[in-house]
Amino acid sequence: MIFDCQRGKCGLCAVGIIETDGQIDHRDVFFSEEEKHENKRMCACVSRLASGKAVIDTGYRI
Ligand code: FES
User: Fold this and answer.
1) Minimal CA–CA distance to 59: which of 19, 1, 8?
2) Best of 31, 42, 43 for a ligand 1 pocket test (most atoms within 8 Å of beta carbon)
């Protein structure tokens, strides 16, 4: 995973959320409140899964 700021500002670490039955604790300032509510992407450097499970797509391919 690529990253830069590690503070939730740049968005380089953003991963796709394929599915989740839990709650994402979005701690970044990169995504808008609307984007955070959609739970389709998260900044992995600062955001967390607060409950449940999630399948994420890091974009990394072998
Ligand atoms: S590394 Fe910049 S938002 Fe995560």
Assistant:
1) 1
2) 43
Under 8 Å CB-to-CB from 27, ≥6 apart: which residues?
8, 43, 46, 47, 48
How far is the C-alpha of 53 from the C-alpha of 29, rounded, in Å? 23
Q: pLDDT tens digits for 9-57?
A: 999 999 999 999 999 999 999 999 999 999 999 999 999 999 999 999 9
By alpha-carbon position, which residue is closest to atom 3 of ligand 1?
8
Ligand 1 atom with the shortest distance to the CA of 44: 4
